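Q: What structure does this chain adopt?
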Amino acid sequence: MIATLFPAIDARTDELVALTADLIRFPTVNPPGEAYTPCAEYIGERLRRRGFEVEYIRAEGTPGDNDRYPRTNIVARFDGRTPGPTVHFNSHIDVVEAGEGWTVDPFGGEVKNGRVYGRGACDMKGGLAASIIAVEAYLQTSPDFPGAIEISGTVDEESGGFGGVAYLAGKGYFSRPRVDHVIIPEPLNKDRICLGHRGVWWAEIETRGKIAHGSMPFLGDSAIRHMGAVLNAFEDELFPALDQKQTRMPVVPEGAKRSTMNINSIHGGQTEDFYPGLPAPNVPDSCRVVIDRRFLLEESIDVVKSEVRGILERLKRDRPRFDYEMRDLMEVLPLMTERDAPVATAIAEGIREVFGRDPEYVISPGTYDQKHIARIGHLHDCIAYGPGILDLAHQADEWVGIADMVESAKVMALGLDLLLRGPRRN
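A:
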């Protein structure tokens, strides 16, 4: 089988590059959710021409969905000639904003020096393209396979996945008996198997004050100064404490083996949008920050929250006129699939065949859509495996290596065969 499958993938190298570049040229920036529908339709039309049954599922009512920015997902299915398991390749089509610092067009899909450049090249349109090529080569060389193969392109992963995999999982698209095994081609490096992710808690903290004229701040109460006290306490107490927490999870990179917290955003005072450069002459009566707390398998979500709330409550006792409100935005518990699970075992065999060495098993520092497949779909035979260097995700001049995509496609195709047919007999 390998004697025909691997050459079929090699022969599609130019097609793989072109497909990746085409996907990058859809500026599927989230937020707000641009170009979701044309990108989904491009994928769906390609797979329809190759014999897949294609569905477009709009996640109506989910965050951000509206007629201008519909949350359009594509799910394609190819049934084999005999009954058997279903293997599903799931990739998200949304990307983060391009940002500054690019030396190439972030949505140009430029090809040079053995790489394809552009926003989403690594995270994760290169992985999506590699999975499509892997499946197409497999269908050519193994037309009599049992079971079924599914490919999906889903939205909003970068903002939590609620309009994508979470919505589809709620509709039964990621549950047995429809699906048995899921591979998510996230960029965790081509010889690694990602078993899961750290936990995450997003929350918004608001400090309150009293509005007054900016020339007489003593008549008001600055919510921004109160927030400054919060941030100082985080710097002095919380961040050092988090840095001391370690995990047995094989999290990459090394810095993510500890607990972390990021201040995602801060907003305070009156807007200056109407008169740029001319601030409102007021004492701010509200200041808000969003925190992004990543936690370990050894930590409970209750303790994670209590560490922050404890600082806020102490400030409320000790700091005159300090008041706050804390609102949960999202929480996801840490997740880790077993190394001997069927999908991990199959992809491990593919890595050994292609690279001649055992895989490295890792945990992602950030969450991805595996959380919804496990939590909502109750399907735990799921891993992330795909081409791309993790550290390049969300960076300027993001790229994916062409050779890496080809090799990863071979691993995915071989893993697919093992999951559908079972282990090979010598």
